[in-house]
Amino acid sequence: MSQAIHGAIGRRGFLAGTASAAAATAILVSGGAILKPSEAWGYEVKALKPGTMRTLVRMARDIYPHDRLADRFYVVAVKPQDEAAAKDPAIRNLLENGVATLDAAAKSKHGTPFVEVGWEADRVRLLRGMETDPFFQKVRGGLVTGLYNNQEVWPLFGYEGESASKGGYLERGFDDIEWL
Amino acid sequence: MAAQFDLNDDGLVVIVGSGAGGGTLGTQLALKGIRTVILEAGGRHEIEDFQNDEWGSFAQISWLDPRTTSGTWRVAKDFAGLPAWIVKAVGGSTIHWAGASLRFQPHEFKARTTYGEVAGANLLDWPITLEELEPYYARAEDRMGVTRTNGIPGLPGNNNFKVLKAGADKLGYKACHTGRMAINSQPRDGRASCRQIGFCFQGCKTGAKWSTLYAEIPKGEATGNLEVRPNCQVLKIEHDPQGKVTGVVYADGDGNLQRQKARVVAVAGNSIESPRLLLNSASNLFPEGLANSSGQVGRNYMRHMTGSVYGVFEDKVRMYRGTTMAGIVSDEARHDPYRGFVGGYEMETLSLGLPFMAAFLDPGAWGREFTSALDGYEHMAGMWLVGEDMPQERNGVTLHKETKDKYGMPVPNVHFDDHPNDVAMRNHAYRQGAELYNAVGAVRTFPTPPYPSTHNLGTNRMSERPRDGVINKWGQAHDVGNLFVSDGSQFTTGGAENPTLTIVALALRQADYIAEQMGRNAI
Ligand SMILES: Cc1cc2nc3c(=O)[nH]c(=O)nc-3n(C[C@H](O)[C@H](O)[C@H](O)COP(=O)(O)OP(=O)(O)OC[C@H]3O[C@@H](n4cnc5c(N)ncnc54)[C@H](O)[C@@H]3O)c2cc1C
Ligand code: SF4
User: Fold this and answer.
1) What is the DSSP string of B244-308?
2) Which of B66, B262, B470, B514 is the most exposed, having the fewest neighbouring CB atoms within 10 Å of its CB?
């Protein structure tokens, strides 16, 4: 019964066709950390309609746009919403109805569902129109930890995370600033 | 060996809370040979349990029991259920604290006299002076190992400090250094020196930073006179028909109610829980709450004027490396009404990790203005602004009329409205902070709103006259001789300085007083 999200399965299929794809496509990002792109791609929805999930992912990027972050980080960030929806019908309704309202607004303004509105500025205007709604607040609130508390995104922001096990920064550049 | 006392032992000093106030008082009493039990609502998490993980640590040791908020402060909107950031664990908020340890300035003990009448403010002079507290400040600094006192060198400056210092020099500020910190810059008192780990707010993994958890309580326990009972939340203080307190009722780790008898009770649950407990201990004899004949219990809540300024620079700063509070500018701490407000403020470096930065930089904000700021995370420097706020009678803690916690105790509501003086000071501080960073080439600065309160003060204030406050100059309740308040809720006014050194100094002084009073059988 579970269906994979449109964009996600496409890329997953691509990866699956390549031998040891995950290893081969591991991305070396600034700061030297290796990110494994494999996990999040194949996310399969538990309770929400695939289209709803896809809209939430688009919304997530429009709310907190970071051009250097791949979609999979946004998928991971909204995943807890789907999980919560699976446990609580009230949350599922809130999300499904919220997306329906957003799509209705997009259709009346642009003639297309939200995800197909071409310009970010237009999508953001639609979101501004509903930013005090419980639906929007729930999605945005979840993203604060869903997106930024994911250790895999930290290197992309230059945040190094845990340091005690490495002996702190005393000998690792706590005072290495040179441009002053 | 840590003591184990009987519930019916009525010769004990019973302390509620094991943080800066309670942990210090309990240890000091034990060292003086006085049998003491500390009841602590939170668990005992030792250094090896600390996590270099902001949300993980927050979930592990914060006070997350339900609280409500009201008033015009922005925290009530952004964090309606979390008015304050307080630790619920043995050690209290001294696990999370940054370590800045500053003495009050002389005039700050005389706020009413110095500032005069400030409309809407419930200002009062402290019943003690700096001279009276000085010997105890000296003892507290020695005990806590405060840098730049007792011949202890300052900590080395990290990247965040270097930006602050360069900006301070450009603006002509003179009083800028790496602070007076209760963090070992060299091994001392059986604790290691700071390794610049950078998670001071999550518990110090080296033990370099002073905390009652490992720097005080074990010394008290070693005397055999101190017992610390974790996971024990005190719900009520009881008294006899003469109005002397006789003990406390608490819920133990299994949720069972227990009654611990006491000769003396000292309340040190931090400025939200302490008045909550007194209010919840109302009785026929004390219908408005214990020790509340003045009506001041829970009032005059102060949280310091706070705010932060973050600056983004062309090049990398990596402010998160090393001590969180790595330096200070004190030039604005003076009282100088020509700036448009009374009292002063300190500027202290601050760094948040990416997860907390996302939550606190501009709560509720979204879109590119916000995310482009976070994109500059590695290029950011940050400072916290902390100054004296005005005590206002309406700001404070009340018992919620309907909502109760899991033990049936009404949850506290925390009400706060900024005073115009607080607003004027914050605006001044935002301006100076931004200028400081602009002077060293900031491309953008952010005036970040206050976080949930870390400095909670004033809700059981000291006063000369019983009608103006809850306790006398020793922290002893005006109404009840064997009841004490031993935490930050004692503060008559807040001063510009971070409060913990003063809390510890007051606790050491109070220990002398309690010992003397017990010795004379006065209590
Ligand atoms: C992130 C952060 C950074 C800080 N940095 C600094 C700094 O650099 N300098 C500075 O001076 N201050 C700083 N502070 C503030 C400092 O931590 C507090 O001022 C100080 O710890 C307050 O001491 P206290 O004794 O009043 O309360 P706490 O230390 O909070 O202790 C109160 C204890 O009482 C317990 N308790 C409460 N109610 C009950 C009950 N009913 N029964 C049993 N136990 C109870 C609590 O669980 C808690 O353990 C910081 C605080 C935070 C959160
Ligand atoms: S930076 Fe220093 S004081 Fe802070 S947690 Fe690390 S070792 Fe402790």
Assistant:
1) -EEEEEEE-TTS-EEEEE-SEEEE-SHHHHHHHHHHHT--SSSTT-TT-TTS-TT-S-B--EEEE
2) B66
**Residue B48 in contact with partner chain A when CB distance is under 8 A:** no
User: How many CB atoms neighbour CB B244 within 10 A?
Assistant: 15
The finding on whether B210 has its CB within 6 A of some atom of ligand 1 is no
pLDDT digits (tens, 9 = 90+) for B394-440: 999 999 999 999 999 999 999 999 999 999 999 999 999 999 999 99
Whole-angstrom distance, CA of residue B296 vs CA of residue B294: 5
Give B-chain residues touching A149 at CB under 8 angstroms.
54-55, 355
Answer yes or no: do A160 and B163 touch at CB < 8 A: no
In angstroms, rounded to a whole number, what is the distance separating the alpha carbons of residues A34 and B427?
Answer: 43
Report the pLDDT value the prediction gives residue B1, as an integer from 0 to 100.
78
Q: Provide the pLDDT confidence category of residue B121 given band limits of 50, 70 and 90.
A: very high
pLDDT in tens, B155-210: 999 999 999 999 999 999 999 999 999 999 999 999 999 999 999 999 999 999 99
Phi and psi at residue B355, to the nearest 5°: -60, -45
What sign has the CA pseudo-torsion A149, A150, A156, A161? positive
- Of A136, A115, A122, nearest to A7 by C-alpha is A115
> What is the β-pairing status of strands B68-70 and B410-415?
parallel
Residue of the nearest CA to atom 13 in ligand 1? Answer: B97
Whether residue A121 lies within 8 A of chain B, CB to CB, comes out as: no
Helix, strand, coil share (%) of chain A residues, nearest 5: 60, 5, 35
Protein residue with its CA nearest to atom 8 in ligand 2? B204
- Which domains are delineated in chain B? 13-519 (3.50.50.60)
Q: For residue range B346-368, what is the model confidence (pLDDT) as tens digits?
A: 999 999 999 999 999 999 999 99
For chain B, the average pLDDT equals: 97
Closest CA to B448 of B361, B369, B321: B361
| Residue ranges lining ligand 2, Cβ < 6 Å | A 168; B 183, 194-200, 204, 206, 208-209, 322-323
Give the residue, by CA position, lying nearest to ligand 2 atom 2: B194
User: How confident is the model at residue A40, as a pLDDT?
Assistant: 39
Ligand positioned closest to the Cα atom of B183: 2
Q: What average pLDDT does range B207-223 have in this prediction?
A: 98
Indicate if ligand 1 lies below 6 Å from the C-beta of B40.
yes
CA of A17, closest CA in chain B: separation in Å?
A: 34
Ligand 1 nearest-atom number relative to CA B507 = 25
> What is residue A43's predicted lDDT score, i.e. its pLDDT?
74
Nearest atom in ligand 2 to B199's CA: 5
pLDDT value for A42: 58
Give which of A129, A123, A155, A149 is closest to A57, Cα–Cα: A123
Chain B, 304 to 323: residues with Cβ < 8 Å from chain A are 313-318, 320-322
What residue owns the CA closest to ligand 1's atom 23? Answer: B20
Phi-psi region of A48 (alpha: psi -120 to 50; beta: other; left: phi over 0): beta
Q: Is B311 in the pocket of ligand 1 (CB under 6 A)?
A: no
Residues of chain A with pLDDT under 70: 1-42
Q: Residue A174 and residue B159: Cβ atoms within 8 Å?
A: yes
Structure tokens at B367: 């879109």
pLDDT at B124 over 50: yes
Q: What is the pLDDT of residue B224?
A: 98
Give phi and psi for B494, each to the nearest 5: -95, -20
Give the three-state DSSP class for B65: coil
Position B151 pLDDT exceeds 70? yes
